[in-house]
Amino acid sequence: KLTCEKGTIETGDWSEMGVLKAYSGGLWYRKNIKLSRDQLNSNIKLELGEICATAEIHINGNFAGYCIHIPFEIDITEFVREGDNYFEILVYSTLANHYSTIPTPLIYRQSYEAVLIGPVKLIWMKGDGAD
With 28 labelled, which of 21, 44, 89, 119 sits at a CA distance of 20 to 30 A? Predict the structure, then answer.
């Protein structure tokens, strides 16, 4: 039995973090990023780099989309504004870690990575969509 509360943990593979080894679910990554008016003069893409499983993106309280396959990237132009921007990325692991706790000979007893590996970058795109 676990008692869970809000808190902060180090970034990294949560399947390597003690009781989270068998956790199947989501964890939030949050960050404020300040953007200038000049930075908003082109389209902006959020690149998540490598993630294990899927990610849900929210910017300034608005749902921006899901990243479910390579490349893990999304155009966020319509969601950002001049000044402070609040980025939230909800990374989901798969059910594999949970199933590793079920007593059956059919399941390979291994914990799988569950993490936002990155690198996470903002990419400013030229008018033709090129970086």
Answer: 44
Q: Helix (H, G, I), strand (E, B), or coil: what is residue 80?
A: coil
Q: Distance between CA 80 and CA 34 in Å, rounded?
A: 10
Nearest to 93 by CA among 120, 56, 122: 56
Q: Which residue type sits at 115? A: V
- Find the range with the poorest average confidence among 4-8, 68-72, 73-77, 123-127: 4-8
Residue 49 CB coordination number (10 Å):
13
- Provide the 10 A C-beta neighbour count for residue 99: 16
SS3 of 54, please?
strand
Phi, psi at 26, each rounded to 5°: -125, 155
Tokens matching residue 92: 């989901």
What tens digit of pLDDT does each residue of 85-110 get?
A: 999 999 988 887 777 777 765 555 56
